[in-house]
Amino acid sequence: MNTGSRLMAVAALVALVAGCGRQDEEPGGGPDAAPPLTAETLGEQVVLSVTEYLATEPYASADRVNGERQAAFCRACHSLEKDGPHMIGPALYGFFGSKVGARQGFEYSAVMREADFIWTPEALDAWLHQPGRFMPGNRMVFAGVTDQRDRNDVIAHLLEVTSSGEH
Ligand code: HEC
Predict the structure, then answer these.
(1) Residue to probe by mutation, ligand 1, list 42, 77, 160, most atoms within 8 Å of CB
(2) Is the CB of 139 under 6 A from ligand 1?
(3) pLDDT tens per residue, range 123-153
(4) Closest CA relative to residue 135, chosen from 158, 118, 115, 119
């Protein structure tokens, strides 16, 4: 093999490896994609009722079985049912439509206590994608749910189980 063809082989390998990496990225994640939402950039949100969210895509057609499976991660640290206790993380029943860091009796990190936004599916999606990037300095030791479909599914499941269905 001369130097030229060896270089080409290396280039082909690099392209292959780079190509593999790209498959893991989500659609729309190119250089032109909007920067990821954070607690700071979330802005004014449209707050709907849980019933309305569940009638809207992507939650209406989300896979509830997968959603429940994904929620097992959350249940390690959060109770989801009515009157559930605080655990490592705050009790989550009724949190959609409520302010971040406002559950009575839970000791939040300073950043979460001082954050100021309402929990909507959109905010939760950004939080669960990469908690550390969404709110640097928070105390939720969880890497996040990287797959967009898994996030849609778990959010649909949470919409169902953390609310009475009346709001
Ligand atoms: C290893 C434990 C752990 C896991 C796993 C975990 N959380 Fe948390 N979560 C926490 C802690 C601790 C906090 C409080 C963080 C702080 O104070 O900075 C938190 C905070 C939250 C909050 C903010 C609640 C509020 O009162 O504003 C939401 C929402 C949340 N978690 C959702 C989830 C969901 C959904 C999952 C599963 C996909 C999950 N968490 C997995 C520990 C965890």
Answers:
(1) 77
(2) yes
(3) 999 999 999 999 999 999 999 999 999 999 9
(4) 115
